[in-house]
Amino acid sequence: MFEALFVIKFRDSLENLNYDDALKILEASYFDPTNSPGSFIVNAFLKLVELSNEYAQVSHRNAIKIDYANFVSVVDNDIAFRLTKLNFFIVCIQYQFSYFRISKEIVYNIFNGLRIYKDNQLRCSWESYCPNNGNVYIIGSPTFRGNRKLSVSQKNDMKYACGFSKITDADYSSAWLIKGANYISGTKSSIALVLTNSVCQGTQVATIWKPIYQKGCQISFAYNSFKWMNPENKTVAVSVVMIGLQGMRSDAVKLLFNKSTCFRCRSIGPYLIQNSEVIVEAQSSPISPRPKMIKGNMPYAAEQVLFDIDTKTAQVQLDPGIEPYIRKVYGSKEFMDNAPRYCLWIADEQYDVAITHPFIKAKMDEISSARRALKDCPKKLLDQPHKFRENNDTNRGSQSLIVPSVSSENRQYHPMGFVYNDSIVTNLSFAIYDCEIWILALLVSRMHNVWSKLVCGQLESRNRYSNELAYNTFPFPRLSVEIKETLKEYTLNLIKIREEFCEVPIGRLYSDMPPKLKNFHAQIDEYVDSLYSNDPLFSDYDRRALLISMYESSINV
After folding, report:
1. What is the pLDDT of residues 167-219, one digit of tens each?
2. Which helix (H) or strand (E) segment is 195 a member of?
3. Residue 224 CB neighbours (<10 A)
4. From CA 171, how far away is CA 173, in angstroms rounded?
5. Fewest 10 Å CB contacts: which of 60, 129, 199, 280?
């Protein structure tokens, strides 16, 4: 963090004999408004001691005494307060003892002069604890907590700090980023925070980054996702990013770190991609021509509408005449588990005959009662108990692609597949009705999976999928008739390989992929990659960067 935040700039200043600029870094304020506890200001202090010695050697001037009063921390609980004060006090005493004289009076003055405070970090005025003189570095690691695990008071704190209610759709740590942006906006002060990686994924991106850009702030450096041990829970490794913000836009080179590679670029975007600050937002229609993907059919009063295989089998035995009105039903869970439920699917012209069957009549009465009990049930559905809210199905002799709305984060590929005209897709999955075969190979590719993870993010820990975010925004490659035929062959071969493991539900199959299936997916990935780039794509970062560039070009046409 410190290398990118101020060390590189410090050493460049020394190399260019800009001693005054180097001196500013040594005399800057270092402010941690998180519960670290003290580790960030301690390490910043130690790094500045090291840089002060470098300054003396290169400039042939006296070493600058690092002023412990330039280090400020605000924590929100007694334990963090005591630990932070103790840790920083020990470092200050060691420094004083190593470089200067020590006495009881000096020790006393250092302890009482430490600027460690306890307050609500999102509600207090940071200016009151660390006035922004244009030479402040905010450092730290806010609490890692997803938006679904927030208490009411934490949500209220976020809204207070950021000034808008939608921020509670984002992770807790995002509030520190936005409050920090407000603090440094229009000044030469900077921020460097360790944050949950979800601040750079999914629908949170627009929520978080639009107000940051509106404040005129810019990412100065970033480290792509890596594992971090949460200071509050040493047993939990969290996927995080490290982001540096500057208070004003500039043409200075930005540094983007991706594993062992450092990219020097003109800008870094909210997805931590070089040279693009575009934000991907949901599109109600695709950005280029393609088959339409929509949400499945919402049953309304699902417990009454849907029934299991035992009920279906028993009722058909009692009255075989009801079988033509019964269809399989697939949502995300049913598709993943290969365990469809069942429903009654009755056309308007069939209704009068259908309700002559006792089971169907009883079901219609159940559904009517259940829907009347729902406050938001549309009148049309009250009058038509045989209808779902939507009534889309697959034409005879065709197939529809089903895409579950969530999938385990442990799966390399988002499972999807075909259902036929004996099956109905619910609103817990997405569907391309009467879908051409070739499209499955494109959407199961690593290229599309990388995109969907980037722009959809996660629901709790599971990967989400959205037609408006992942599918409608996905940059399709140029697709000739020949390419579609090749993709079709890949799809048919993929289906054949899956059928070799037909006894294994597709969710489990993709959680622990057999080598044959995994190897064939690698072949699909290689072919699809070749449709996007003549050069090899060595990493998912390369894929993300290429897709973001294509997306930006498509919306700017």
Report:
1. 999 999 999 999 999 999 999 999 999 998 889 998 899 999 999 999 999 99
2. strand 190-196
3. 20
4. 6
5. 60
Residue type, 160: Y
Residue 18 has a CB neighbour count (10 Å cut-off) of 14
- The answer to whether 218 and 188 are in contact (CB under 8 A) is no
**Contact 410/276 with Cβ under 8 angstroms?**
no
Within 10 angstroms of residue 97's Cβ, the number of other Cβ atoms is 12
Give the residue carrying structure tokens 């040493």. Answer: 234
What are the strands of the beta sheet with 458-459, ordered from one edge? 406-407, 462-464, 458-459
Angstrom distances, CA of residue 526 to CA of 417, 438, 454, 473, 523: 20, 16, 20, 22, 5
Cα separation, 451 vs 554, whole angstroms: 15
Average pLDDT, the chain: 93
Which pair of structure tokens corresponds to residue 377? 């049930």
Contacting residues for 268 by C-beta, under 8 A, at least 6 apart: 219, 220, 221, 222, 254, 256, 274, 277
- In one-letter notation, the amino acid at residue 174 is S
What are the tokens at 168?
């509670």
Strand partners, 194: 242
Q: How many CB atoms lie within 10 A of CB 412?
A: 12
Please name the amino acid found at residue 499: E
The closest of 111, 140, 95 to 2, measured between CA atoms, is 140
Per-residue pLDDT tens over the stretch 410-426: 899 999 999 998 899 99
Q: Where are the domains of the chain?
A: 1-139, 141-279, 393-555
> Which residue in the block uniquely carries the two structure tokens 């101020």?
6
Strand pairing class (399-404; 429-432)? antiparallel
Residue whose tokens read 């588990």: 337
One-letter amino acid at 220 equals: S
CB of 244 within 8 A of CB of 220?
yes
Residues 112 and 76: their CA atoms lie apart, in Å, by: 19
Neighbours of 22 (CB within 10 A): 26
pLDDT at 127: 96
Burial 295-308 (b: 16+ CB within 10 A, else e): bbbebbbbebbbbe
Task: Identify the burial level of 418 via C-beta atoms within 10 angstroms of its C-beta, where 0-12 means exposed, 13-18 middle and 19 or more buried.
Answer: middle
Interval 81-119: pLDDT, tens: 999 999 999 999 999 998 888 888 989 899 999 999 999
Within a 10 A sphere around the Cβ of 248, how many other Cβ atoms? Answer: 14
Q: Kindly report the pTM of this predicted structure.
A: 0.88
